[in-house]
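Reply to thread "Modeling small-molecule complexes from scratch"

Following up on the discussion above, here's a worked example others can learn from. I took a protein sequence and the SMILES for adenosine-5'-triphosphate and predicted the complex. Inputs first:
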Amino acid sequence: MNDTNDLLATVVDFGSSSVKSGHSGESTPRVFLNSSVGVKAKNGKLDSGENGLVFTSKNHEILTDIGGAPASTLLMNPYGGGDDIDLTNGGDSLMTKIFDLSMSEMFQDSSSVSDHPLLFIDRCSSSPDQRTKLAEILFESCKIPALFLGRDAVMSCYACGRSTGVVVDVGGSSTTVTPVFEGWAESSLRSPVGGNFMDDHFLSILDKKAGKPVLPRYLAKVDSSKRSKLINDADPSYHAYMRMVTGRYAKEIIAKVASFGYSPTSPSHETLIKQTYALPDGTSVDIGTERYDTGEVLFGHESVARSELVHDTFGSSDPIQNLVCDAVFACPRDHQASLLSTVVLSGGGSCIPGIVDRLRLETENIIHAHTPGWRVKVLAPATTERRICSWLGGSIVASLSGFTENWVTKKEYDEQGAAGILRKCP
Ligand SMILES: Nc1ncnc2c1ncn2[C@@H]1O[C@H](COP(=O)(O)OP(=O)(O)OP(=O)(O)O)[C@@H](O)[C@H]1O
């Protein structure tokens, strides 16, 4: 490898919904890859171990075009529904395979991966063991020449030109709130209500409107006499995913947050013009005030937050304004005002219209009960940047000339192992 000074770095944000990969110094990732992929056995039969399927890249083929894959395809996600990438039970080889696929789309020549240092965006909550294991996989299996593990919330702050702020990241699997003070991440708080949850919630609205479960795309255009066989043959993971994305497409177009509070009976909401949405099978449904319900789940509005869906799935979930206040109040008193004056919105789920004013309003309502003088400011980059905020921060940081000394080179890794990683990427 040439000197790390001379080279563009590769920046990868390996999220639970999508993997964003690109070059440092650029304003958008070159490649977006779905993190859920189809897994097909090369010998035609998937072998289940005692603890479920153990993925081995040697025996399995990865299908990235889920919509185009047969319905019998098993879908897997390296997060496996957890907070961190599952690096056990074959999850490491699944992660490696998806990483390799991203790199082969980015570089014509896969050997280029070994020519560029990698800034890998990691969760703030990731443990030292998780970071060490991640580094081992990236150096040993992915053959990278140098690494920096950047904390996601810190990178999101940098993307907004700040080193202090409270980052509210509404991602796929969850919403995470992390105070960052002068470039150091404090303890995060997390709610399971993220983009996937909102997708399912919006899907339940569509089901109610349609008066029956909405048919996902793979069933919608099929003759009704063939549907039950197709559903029987479909893998449950495939069917559930295709239903979820049906909710997702509609949510991204229609869902909104009521900027200044919500009441289903408020006159302004009652007179709202209904929006017509075409379901995959061609039937149309009219969405009125329901377009606000999904966003309300984030803010814990009583009638919505106590809906069956939230209870069935999680029991309860903290509204984001409470997460912001609790996370800030856990920080030293003299940091609190500056944290609240920079609440940074990040992640795809935070692109829902109306969220900026509402988050400020709800957070101020709590804060002013204690400290009336304090102001809450929400910093929200344009949605094109907000959905890639942590990737963008990584891209900026890795392109700074002074960043060179932060890379952990393969040589350092070989000599110092985990200690070198944890020292340079705290
Ligand atoms: N314009 C939009 N409006 C509403 N939601 C959106 C919009 N764009 C993307 N999303 C949602 O963002 C979510 C994915 O967010 P993001 O890409 O930040 O997740 P991730 O980083 O892969 O996941 P995680 O943070 O859990 O690792 C999806 O649920 C998607 O529907």
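What I'd highlight from this example: The chain has a mean pLDDT of 88. Residues 132 and 417 are 8 Å apart (CA to CA). Questions welcome below.
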